[in-house]
Design brief:
Largest sheet: none
Order of helices and strands: HHHHHHHHHHHHHHH
Distance between the termini: 50 Å
Helix content: over 70%
Strand content: under 5%
Number of strands: 0
Radius of gyration: 20 Å
Structural class: mainly alpha
C-alpha cells in the first residue's frame, strides 16, 4: 500500500471524518477490552492489567507534542493514513503471536498509532470549522466517538465469548485499516489551512495561557475518570462472575449514554457557556462513581454506567472548543498534542496507581477516590467558569 500524498480530490466533509473516526476508535476501544480480558484469562492479576493499560499511554505521553507540531506542518492526511496502518498492525498482532509478552508490544503500538490519528482528525475538524461552528462540529465528531465506543467493547465481548481471543483481535484489525484504504482509494482532500505556515514559538507560550491551563487540568481529571472505568470494569465484572459479553454490554451502556447526550450537545452548545456544561458533567460523573461500589447486579451496573456516560460524554466537545478558541494561530495541532500528553499522563499513571490501590484495599476506595476528584474539579469549573 502506498501512502497518499497531498489531497487532490474533493474536500472531505465532516461526516467522512466522523465515519473514519468510528472505524479507528472501534478498533482501539475494542482492543482495550480484549487486552484486559485476554490477560485475565491467562491468570494475570490486576497489576499486570494495569501495566498493559498504561502502555497504551506511554509513547503518546512522550511524543504527543511532537506529533502535533508535525501535523501542523504537513496537514492531517498522511498522518491519518499511516496511523491507520500501524493501528491495524498493532491490533492484529496478538492474533498472530498469542501470549502476554505480545500484549506489551501490541498495547504500545496501538496507543502510539491512535494518538496520531486522534490529533490529526481533531486538527482537520478544527481547520474546517468557522469560529461560530466549533462547538457544534466537535459535538458531531464526538458522536462518532460515541458510536465506536459502543461498538468496540460490545463486539469484542461477543466475539471473545463465541470465537475466542485471537479471532477477536483479528476481527478488530479490519475496521482499523478502513481509514487508510479510504484515503488511499477515494482521494479525499483533508483541510489543513495552516499546514506549512506555523507561527512557532516555545511551548511555554501555550502553557502560559490561563484558559489553556484550565482546560488541560480538567482534561487530565476527565481522562482519569474515563479510562478508570474501562480499566476497572473488566476486573470488577470478572470478580463478580460476569461473562465477557455481559462486561462488554455494560461498557456499551456507557458508550450509548455518550451518544445520547451528544445528540443534544449541538443544541446545548448554542445556549450554554462551555465551562457551565463542563461543570455539570463533572458532578454527574462523580455521583456515578460514588454509587458503583454498592452495586453488583447487571441491570444496576448498566444503569450507573449509563449515568457515568451521560456525565463524561458531554464534556469533550466543550473542551475542544475551548482549546481552539484559546490557541494561537497555526498552533492547534501543538495544543492538541499538549492536551494528548496530559491525557496520556493520566492514562499512564492511573492504572498503575489505582491497580495498586485496588490490589491492596479493594475497588471501593478506587471508585470513591475518583468521585472526590470529579467533585473537586466540578467545583473549580463552576467557580471559574463564566456565566452565559
Amino acid at each position: 500500500m502506498t501512502a497518499p500524498g497531498p489531497g487532490k480530490g474533493r474536500p472531505a466533509p465532516l461526516a467522512l471524518l466522523a465515519a473514519l473516526t468510528v472505524f479507528a476508535h472501534a478498533a482501539f476501544n475494542g482492543s482495550r477490552v480484549s487486552v484486559s480480558l485476554y490477560a485475565l484469562s491467562l491468570k494475570s492479576g490486576a497489576l499486570t492489567v494495569g501495566i498493559l493499560v498504561s502502555l497504551y499511554a506511554i509513547l503518546p505521553m512522550l511524543l504527543s507534542v511532537s506529533a502535533g507540531r508535525m501535523i501542523d506542518r504537513v496537514g492531517s492526511r498522511r498522518p491519518l493514513f499511516w496511523a491507520s496502518v500501524v493501528l491495524a498492525a498493532g491490533v492484529g498482532l496478538p492474533a498472530v503471536l498469542p501470549g502476554v509478552a505480545t500484549l506489551y508490544l501490541a498495547c504500545t503500538t496501538i496507543g502510539l498509532a491512535f494518538m496520531v490519528f486522534h490529533i490529526a482528525v481533531q486538527n482537520a475538524v478544527g481547520a474546517l470549522s468557522a469560529p461560530e461552528d466549533r462547538a457544534v462540529n466537535f459535538s458531531w465528531l464526538a458522536l462518532g466517538f460515541s458510536i465506536s465506543g459502543f461498538l468496540g467493547p460490545t463486539v469484542a465481548g461477543l466475539a471473545i465469548d463465541h470465537a475466542g481471543h485471537r479471532a477477536t483481535f483479528a476481527l478488530l484489525a479490519l475496521p482499523a485499516i478502513v481509514p487508510a484504504l479510504t484515503l488511499a482509494l477515494a482521494g479525499y482532500e483533508l483541510p489543513h489551512a495552516h499546514a506549512g505556515r506555523v507561527t512557532g514559538g516555545p511551548l511555554r507560550d501555550l502553557l502560559g495561557q490561563r484558559e489553556l491551563r484550565r482546560v488541560f487540568a480538567v482534561t487530565g481529571i476527565l481522562a482519569m475518570a474515563w479510562d478508570l472505568f474501562f480499566f476497572v470494569m473488566p476486573i470488577h465484572g470478572t470478580a463478580i462472575g460476569l461473562s465477557a459479553s455481559t462486561i462488554g454490554g455494560i461498557l456499551g451502556a456507557f458508550a450509548l449514554a455518550t451518544f445520547v447526550v451528544r445528540l443534544g450537545l449541538p443544541w446545548a452548545a448554542r445556549r450554554f457557556a462551555e465551562w457551565r456544561l463542563v461543570s455539570g458533567t463533572l458532578f454527574v460523573a462523580g455521583v456515578a462513581y460514588a454509587l458503583f461500589p454498592f452495586v453488583r447486579t447487571v441491570p444496576l451496573l448498566a444503569a450507573i454506567a449509563f449515568l457515568l456516560g451521560l456525565g463524561l460524554g458531554a464534556s469533550q466537545p466543550s473542551l475542544m472548543s475551548l482549546i481552539q478558541r484559546a490557541t494561537p494561530h497555526g498552533r492547534l495541532g501543538e495544543a492538541l498534542g499538549v492536551r494528548t500528553t496530559v491525557l496520556n499522563m493520566s492514562n499512564c499513571s492511573m492504572p498503575l496507581f489505582f491497580g495498586g490501590v485496588g490490589a491492596a484495599l479493594g475497588l471501593g476506595p478506587v471508585f470513591w477516590s475518583m468521585a472526590i476528584f470529579l467533585g473537586l474539579a466540578g467545583a473549580m469549573a463552576r467557580r471559574r467558569g463564566p456565566a452565559h
